[in-house]
Amino acid sequence: MQRIAFGVLVVCLLAACATQPDQKAKSAATQVTLYVDKSGNPATSPEEEQVLSALHMIQDGKIMAAIDGPLNAVIGTFEAQYAHADVKVYSARGATDALIYATLGTGGASGQKVEVLGPAWAMAYWARGYAYGEMARYDDERLELEKALALAPMDAQYSNELGYVYLQKHEWQNALSYYEKAEGFADFNPSNADSMKCTSFRGQGYVLVELHRLDEAEAKYRACLKITPNEPKSLGEIGYIEGLRKTQH
Questions:
Q1: pLDDT for res 110
Q2: Which of 34, 84, 112, 124 is deepest in the core (most CB within 10 A)?
Q3: Architecture of domain 155-249 in this structure
């Protein structure tokens, strides 16, 4: 496994990056750093491995051990590294969103350096939020998800998760807003775009039912069914909507 670091001007020349993986464009204002294997495919960084280990610990009921151990270690490392740095940092899952964040960075404050890292930092905040949610510490969960989104503002999963937090709090407009954002961002991570879209559609549908906007809600559930035919949750909610309509007449 190796790290590829390259400036935003070099990003457009992926072939050049492939032939000279260790080269850094010193003059570029934006730097992107991704982990790849020997074939140039995305690879898991040591920090990501720590986050994945923490998730297994949470699933095994070792929630505080996961927080106090690998999650705080990963987060602490990144926070210490960038605490006093005059740099705008993004956390990308792959090349697609990395390039987008790099482009966003060129529109930042004049002279401010921009770095696009791999997914580990944002993942660690998300995982710590997940752990807090398992302990019913929902405000702490929300804060962690907001930190994740600050690093990965176009990440559909984090937007969906934050939408669900607001759904649980019955803050319908906030929930709807984040679910809609997730729908728009889903294609930035092609490997799970369909799953993220369906999650977003179901979340929007749920909120729209609560807002008594039944036709719009049904349309969202049917949008999910176009992606995943016979998806049981959407079918069940459409049946629920049909029942509500009958009681209104």
A1: 55
A2: 124
A3: Alpha Horseshoe (1.25)
